Amino acid sequence: MRSPLKSHKYFKNYLKEECARIDKFETVINKVIAERGANDRGVQSGLRSITGFYFNVFNALYSAGAPLEDLKKFYPRVLNSMKKVWDSESGYVEMLWMISTGIMLEVPQTELQEIDRMVNNDGIEDFLFEFLLGQNKEELETTNSPIHYRPYKKLYNVINSTTKDESLRLLRDYLANEWYQGHNDTGWYDTHKSKEDIFSGYWSFESGAIVKILELDDSSLKDTLYYPYDMVHYN
C-alpha cells in the first residue's frame, strides 16, 4: 500500500469496478461506432469517459502498491485511450501526469514522442510541458511560455532556482502548502471523504519528475504526503 487513506480491500474492489466499467463502455462504444461512425457525439463523450477510467485505474494501481513494472505495462493503454480525445482545455492535469509518470518510469522514447506530438498538435504553449518534454530532446529549448494551471505556477521557481538546496526547499513548501489545496476545483478533490467508492489516490507526479530531472536529494521527502518516492527511484 502506498496511500494511507484507504485499505487494500477498498482498492481491490475499486479496481475491479473500474476495469468492469472500461469493458462495458468499450463494448458499447464499438457498437455505436459500427452504427453511427467514430465522429458521433455520443462516441466522443464515451471515449472521454473511458480515458478517465483508465487514469483512475493507473492512479489506483499506484496507490494500492502495485509493482512499478505493472504500471509501466499499463501505461500504453492509458496513452492509447488518451490519444483519441485529449485536448489541453479539459485534460491539462492528465497530460501532466502522463508526461511525469512517463519520465519516472522511463517509458520508451516512442511513447514520450507521441505525447510531444499530441501537445504540439493541440497548440498549447506551457513552460512546464516544455521543460519536462524537453529533457528527451537533443537541445533543450529555452521558453518564455507561462504555466497555465494553478498551483503549478509555483514550480517555475523550483525549476529555475540557482541551487539544488533552494529547489528542494521550494518543492517541500509546494507539497506541504500548495499542491492539494490548489486542486480544490478538480473532480477528485476530497474524494477520500465520499461515501461512494470514487477515490483513486492523491499524487504529485510532477514533483517526482522534476526531482528526477534536477537530480535533487529527495531523502527528506520520502514520507511526504503526495510524493511518489519509489517511482522517482525506479531503476
Task: Domain count, please report it.
Answer: 1
Q: What's the helical proportion of residues?
A: 55-70%
Q: What is the count of DSSP helices, taking H or I runs of 4+ residues? A: 10
The main pleated sheet reads as: none
* Terminal Cα span: 20 Å
Order of helices and strands: HHHHHHHHHH
Question: What is the rounded Rg?
Answer: 18 Å
- Tertiary shape: globular
Strand tally: 0
**Structural class, from helix and strand content?**
mainly alpha
Mean pLDDT: 93
Could you name the ranges where pLDDT drops below 50 across 5 or more consecutive residues? none
Q: In percent, how much strand structure appears in the residues?
A: under 5%
Organism: Terribacillus saccharophilus
Domain PoNi C-terminal: 125-231
Protein name: PoNi C-terminal domain-containing protein
Pfam families: PoNi_C, PoNi_N
Explain this structure to me?
It is a single chain. The protein has 235 residues and is mainly alpha-helical. The chain has one domain. The chain is globular and about 60 Å long. The protein starts with 7 loop residues before the first helix and ends with a helix. The model has no long low-confidence stretch (mean pLDDT 93). It comes from Terribacillus saccharophilus.
